[in-house]
Amino acid sequence: PGQLSSWPLCCRVLGMAPTGNGVAGHVAILYGSQTGTSEEVAWDLVREGRAKGFQCGEPQALNDIDLQGLCAMKFAVFVVSTTGQGDPPVNMRKLWQELLVASLPKTLLTDLRFAVFGLGDSHYREFNYAARKLHARLRGLGAQAFFRLGLGDDQHDFGLEQELDPWAESMWEALAGICLPQASAQRGATLAGVEDCRYRVEVLEEAPSAEATVNGGKHGADAAWPLGPEEFEAEVQANWSLCTTEHACEQQDVRNVALLMPPGTSYEAGDVCVVW
Q1: 60-61/9-16 β-pairing
Q2: Is 115 exposed, middle or buried (0-12, 13-18, 19+ CB in 10 A)?
Q3: Buried b (16+ CB within 10 A) or exposed e, 163-196
Q4: How far apart are CA 233 and CA 243, in angstroms?
Q5: How many CB atoms lie within 10 A of CB 91?
Q6: What are phi and psi of 32, to 5 degrees?
Q7: What pLDDT was estimated at residue 210?
Q8: Tens digits of per-residue pLDDT, 134-145?
Q9: C-alpha–C-alpha distance, residues 61 and 44, integer Å
């Protein structure tokens, strides 16, 4: 187990802040996310949409809706990443499998107007496969794209934002032509009581000292950190920077971390490991 940095406070997340759901003219923001980046982009789009007068509720993972719910939508923006060998993220695979049923009518989604933005890495051959396939399948079921497919590339000098920022700005403009935003006064009434923050946090107590926190991977002197069914402890055997000191200070610090996996742990190329 690696060394943990000390936290200034112990906090408990109470839950999502209320966001309110629109009705007529509601724009659904949907995401498929493996490591959380697409979800963060979806939340950014929600905040942008609300500021521009669109009725956007909180974003939803694609697995949280079904075909019936998708058919009921009029306007939707999809943010999708690609994982593994061109696979869709885990939290959209259920709906994706439903969309792939060959017997679905080609007019199933004729009432849906949509846009798709993909998060990918052009170093991989399957660059943005999930977003490309979703875009094609939605059109194959009768949905109409109101804006072009956006393909973000993590390899760009400015990261995903190089494509995302201009894409989002033009996307909202295109959407305004078919889904009229609310006027300023009406917008203020709709957003009354709606918070842009995602969580409410309650301070419980002062955090334990660093000496008590750093104890062979334990949280506190005796308490073991609870592990889920797919979680495990690993020993950090190496941790060094791949960047120059200047790049690490001014841009970002990319590191090579070598972990000693527990016996019996298996993985394949393209798998994602989330480190806590």
Answers
A1: unpaired
A2: buried
A3: bbeebbeebbeebeeebebbeeeebeebbeeeee
A4: 27
A5: 18
A6: -125, 115
A7: 52
A8: 999 999 999 999
A9: 15
Contact 77, 26 (CB under 8 A): no
**Residue 190, helix vs strand vs coil:** helix
Q: In this structure, are residues 218 and 226 in contact, taking their beta carbons and an 8 Å threshold?
A: no
d(CA 55, CA 180): 10
Is 59:115 a contact under the CB 8 Å cutoff?
no
Q: Cα-atom radius of gyration of the chain, to the nearest Å?
A: 22
Please check whether residue 84 is in contact with residue 270, taking contact to mean a CB–CB distance below 8 angstroms. yes
pTM of the shown model: 0.66
* Coil, helix or strand at residue 9: strand
Residues near 274 by beta carbon (within 8 Å), at least 6 away in sequence: 35
For residue 186, pLDDT beyond 50: yes
Q: Which two tokens stand for residue 265?
A: 């742990």
Distance CA 94, CA 69 (A): 14
Backbone angles phi, psi at 81, to 5 degrees: -100, 170
